[in-house]
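Final report, Chapter 2: Outcomes

The project's central promise was a pipeline that accepts a single protein chain and returns its three-dimensional structure in a standardized token representation, suitable for archiving and comparison. That pipeline is now operational. To close this chapter, we reproduce one record exactly as it appears in the project archive, with the input sequence first and the structure output second.
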Amino acid sequence: MRSVDLIPLDFNYEQYVRKFKIRELFSSTKLNLDPSRKINKTITESVDPENFMALPPELDDLSRLHYIVLNRKVTTIMEFGVGKSTRIFAEALKINHKKYHDITSRTLRRKNLYQCHSVDNNQKWIDNCVKEIPNEFFLNNLVNINFSNVITSEFVGKVCTYYESLPNVCPDLIYLDGPDQFSPIGDVRGLSTRHQDRMPMAADILTFEHFLLPGTLIIVDGRTANARFLKSNFQRTWSYYYSESWDQHFFELQEQPLGKFNKEMICHCLGEEYFKRISDKK
């Protein structure tokens, strides 16, 4: 998978932000913020356990996420870490629901059509984020937010972290942006991620990799060490792409459909381009 498979080479951030009124979704957005540029963080900003300040919206990331959900006709999202992305996913799923639900509810075998299921370990942060999401998204079941503690544990002998409880859904898009490295409880022989020189190391996806459907897309926001950990431990046929300018990692499960229901979903959501991608891998 390449960047051109994710967004067009001539993708115009400013036009996209205006078309879908993305600035207006966030009260803290500076109207003159350039949506094509990333926000520079201080050297310790992302590894400071005392920093509870929300970052301003990164319009480049949010625009891409919104576009990817629409372009791939995503049906079900699992999100690790609640935030501004939750609102963006809800807005995009609302559009997909309006455009496709009449058809997909009859043709796809999907229980959680057009739902975003998010998990986070910080209840205060969840409460703050919920305030920014219109109640209609919860009433219409477009957004489901779950609280769970995070523990330090092992994956085949390697120290990592897990959420204690996950939403029992089958996503076709997974967004990994949590937990932070200071939240996990406990340690393994004195080792944990709770150190400024450590980094997040979530292993949740590895535990249910065998359940995921061909065509599933995983987006890892930053967290390069975590992305490499996943890459080195995945056992199925994943494509991998890292965008240095976006600082995001992309994995697509590129396998032949599991059966007719999975094939119908791939044909609807991803079309012939998906089959071309898996053919090119041979």
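Archive annotation: The chain has ten helices and nine strands.
This record, like all others produced under the grant, will remain available to the consortium after the project formally closes.
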